[in-house]
Here is the input.
Amino acid sequence: MLYALMGLGLSLITGVLNIPNFAHGALFAVGAYFLFSTLHVVGNFWLALVLAPVGVALLGLAIEYAGIRPLYAAGHDYQLLFTFGLSLILSEGIIVVWGPIGFSQLPPSILRGGLDLGFTFYPKYRLFVMVMAGLLVLATWLFLEKTRYGAIMRAGIENKEMVSLLGIDVHRLFTAAFGLGAYLAGIAGALTAPIRGLSPSMGVDMLGIAFVVVALGGLGNLLGAIAAGLIIGVAQAVVALYWTEASVAVIFAVMAAILLVRPQGLFGIR
Amino acid sequence: MSRAWLAVLAAVVLLPLIVRHAIASEIWIFAIFGLGLNLLLGYTGLLSFGQSTFFGAAAYVAGYLLKLHGINVFTALGIGVVVGAVSAAMVGYLCVQRSGLYFIMLTFALNQMFYFIAYQWTTVTGGEDGMPGVPRPLVLGMDIRQPLPYYVFVVVLFLISLWVMKRIVESPFGKILQAIRENDVRAEAVGYDVARFKLLAFVIGGAFSGLAGVLYAMLFGIVPLEAIGFVFSGNVVFATLIGGGGSLYGPIIGSFVFIWLSESVSVVWQRWPLLLGVAFVIVVLFFRGGCVEAWARFWSWRERRRALAGLAR
Here is the structure.
C-alpha cells in the first residue's frame, strides 16, 4: 500500500506536469526526517504526522514555483537533469543536517507490539500504516474523481491545451499537482520512518520502486498504481521469505517480466 | 584532417602536461562513455538514464576475469564491449517499446535492478566496498602500469572510438537515427523499423559504455559500487548535455568540464555531490544549450558592457 501511495504521488506529478521527477525519492526521505525532527520539537507523534508532510508539500510548492516552472518548454533532458540535481542536493542536505548515520524511530506507544489476528501475529504499527495508506489512496481517489479540482487535474493529464483554453490557469494546476504529489511522498516517508528507520539512502531506494509502479500502472492511473503497488509489494514479501538478498532486485525483475508479456503496462496506456 | 581533429589531438598532447595523468585518463574514458550516450541522446533522441548499467556490468565482468583468471588485456576489452552490448540489448529490448517519460523511467528502473544485484552479490562484487585488485596486464609486451603509458593506451583507444563513432553517425544508419530523432512517426511511415533501429543504437551505445567501463576499472584498479549506480548515469547525461548533445564532439567538451568540476569540488568539501547538484541546477536554469551557448552569451554580455561604457563616455 505504501508503494501504491508513492507511485500515486509520482504518477500525479509525472502525469500532470509531464516531467520525470527524479527528486520524488528525496522528498520521501525528507518526509521521514521531517517527522523525526518535528517529533522531537512537538513531542506528539500524531501532530508530527500531520505537520511533516505539510512541510514536504510546502517544499514541493517552492521547488515547482522556483525551479520547474521555467523548464516546461525545455525538454525532458533538462527537466531530468534539474530534478536529478535537486535529488542530489536534498539527499546530501539530509546528510549535512542530520548526519550520515541512520536513526531508528519508535512508533507511538499505543501502536507498539503486535496484534493477534487469529491465524497470524502482526505488528500493530504495520496494520496502522496499511490502513492509513489505504485511506490516503481512497481520499486521493475521491478527490480526483468527485471534486471539481480533481476533475481539472485529470483533465490536465489528458489534454493541457484544452484545459488552458477553458480558462483555467494551468500553471496553478501544475503547482497544485506537484504540491499534492510531494505531500503524498512526504506522508509515505513519515509513515515508513517507524518501520524501517531513517537513512540518507532511503529516498533513492524508494525512487526506483515508485518508477516501477508508474511504469507498470500508467501515468495518472490510480487503479494501475494500486494494482502495481500491490503486485510488487507481495512479490517482494514472498521472495524475502526464501531469499532475503534478492528481495529488492526482484521488484525490478517482476517489472521486467510483466513488461515482456505486456510491453504497454498493466492497463495498456501509451 | 579537419580542425576538430586537430583540436582533439592538441588536447590529447597538452592535457597530461596540465593535470595529473590519472585525471587526464579519466577524462578520455568518460568521453568514450559520453560518445556512447550521445549516439542515443544526441542522434536518436533517446534519453537513457541507465547508461551505468552497461558501464558497471562490463567493469565487473572484465575486472573479475582480469583479477582471477589473468586474461589478456585485449580479451578484457573485447569482453567489456560484448558485455556492454549484450546487457544493453537486454535492457533496450524492454525499453524501446515505450517512449517519452516511460522510456526514461524504465532505463532507470533496470539500472536499479543491476545496482541491487551488484550490491547484494558480495562474494563477487564486494558489495558496498567495491571490487579491488583489478590489474593492468601487459599490452603487446609493454608495461602500462605507470600512469603515463596507461594514458597513452587510453588515448589510443579513445581516438579509435571517436573515429568509429564518426563513421557510424555519418553512415546511412546514422542518418536513419537522426530521422527517428526528428520524427519517428514519419521514419516509420517511410518504412524503417524504428524499434529495431533504436535497439541497435542502444546496443552500440552499450558497447562504448562497456569499453569505458573496463578502462575505468583498470585505471583505478577497483570497480566501485558507484560505477553501476544511477548517479553515474546522471553524470554522463549531464556531461553530454553541457557539452552540447547532437554534436560529435560535444561529449568530449562535456567530459572535460564535468571531470574538472567534480575533481575541483571534491577537494573542497566531503559532501561534494551537494555542490555538484547545485551546479546541475544552475546549469539547467541559466545555461541551457551547454558550454557553446554560455560562451556566446558571455561575449554578447561583454559587447553590451563595452557599448554601454562607450555611451557613458
Notes: The mean pLDDT of chain A is 77.
